[in-house]
């Protein structure tokens, strides 16, 4: 069976404030923000990503969201975040070390998983993080 992403992308969120979105997602999921899931808002592109710490059926959650009256009123869309093994982290602090990045991205609290490689680019304050599998994808 294929792995399912623990993260859901919400697009067209401009009509729903971040606090309203968090409350809406709590209402739909029956879970608690920060304890059971996190929400990262990316206002520049009108997107938010909910990452579930607690194991849930995210496919079913997406279906519930798309049928929910308020989600439709806000004209938001929801979809599973694609699984990936490699991500780029940007705007990292100066003098950050690969060990810190590894430990951070291996944290389940941050939606991570076992890291196989970290390539640090200090001149760009960025890094490429490669995970051992698809579990770390935030």
Automatic annotation (TrEMBL):
Top-level taxon in the UniProt lineage: Eukaryota
Q: Where is the PARP14 second RRM domain?
A: 4-82
Q: Which Pfam families does this one have?
A: RRM_PARP14_2, RRM_PARP14_3
Q: What is this protein called?
A: PAR14 polymerase
- The transmembrane residues are none
């Amino acid at each position: 069976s294929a792995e399912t992403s623990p993260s859901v992308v919400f697009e067209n969120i401009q009509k729903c404030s971040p606090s309203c979105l968090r409350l809406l997602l709590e209402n739909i999921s029956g879970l608690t923000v920060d304890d059971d899931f996190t929400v990262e808002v990316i206002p520049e592109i009108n997107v938010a990503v909910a990452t579930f710490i607690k194991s849930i059926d995210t496919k079913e959650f997406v279906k519930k969201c798309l049928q929910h009256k308020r989600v439709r009123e806000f004209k938001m869309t929801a979809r599973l975040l694609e699984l990936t093994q490699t991500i780029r982290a940007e705007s990292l602090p100066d003098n950050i070390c690969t060990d810190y990045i590894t430990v951070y991205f291996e944290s389940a609290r941050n939606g991570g998983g076992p890291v196989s490689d970290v390539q640090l680019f200090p001149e760009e304050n960025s890094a490429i993080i490669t995970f051992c599998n698809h579990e770390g994808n935030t």
